[in-house]
Amino acid sequence: MKIISITLNCRRDKAANGETGPDAVLYYFRSPVVFSAAGHDKVYKEDTAIIFSSGYKQYFRSADGSPIRYDCVRFRSSSADRQYMASMNLPIDSPVEISDGFVISSTLKSMKSRSQRKGKHLSEFMELCMRILFISLSEAAEPVTVTHGETIPRYAELKKLRDDIYDDPMNDWSVDTICDDLNISKAYFHRLYLEAFGVTCRQDVIESRLMYAGELLKNTDLSISAIAEQCGYDSDSYFMRQFKQHKGCTPSEFRRRIPEQNE
Q: What CA–CA distances, in Å, run from 196 to 22, 40, 91, 244, 255?
């Protein structure tokens, strides 16, 4: 399986109407969306996913008039990949509402972050991530009844907060302000957030900013200092240390590797 592109936090003002092209596309919608098939429209809530097969005539639009928000993976599958997908009873060209989008959202973020680094195991990592996505969609299409287990208090609010952090990495994201808004103590907030997502809120803020930094390094000619400032860092040296710690290379090295990654 070959990953063609991974784009996160996309916004689309107009309806999508046209063929997908030679590659299959997985969309993960984070806002309500309307799909049209056989002349009939149906509204789906946020946290809906769909895999469009290559050459499929896709049509979707916003359900509430605001821009559609989504993540997207374009991929090229082999015959063995398609056999695997068929064995999973994976719904193709059919929307699937996800009851808990944490696994899909986290996997897509991991894929995007990992794609920005070069490594000999990149292809294997991406294929394993795609299988996680396929399993999640397959299970969502045939939900298993849960008879026990506890739900995490205020999960919907925490999930929205996490989505907002990745949508707007430049926000201050003060824990004091967040806790005031949620009307909970900092200790309780930290415990709930870690229990819900397996990472701290601070870790997510850092990751969202470094992902944004990677996009700026890739798509602009801004200096490292200017990028550090845009990503909310007061110190260039601290930004560079944190970038290397999380991405495995300095910002300058990352930028130099971009032509190789594109190849």
A: 38, 37, 28, 27, 34
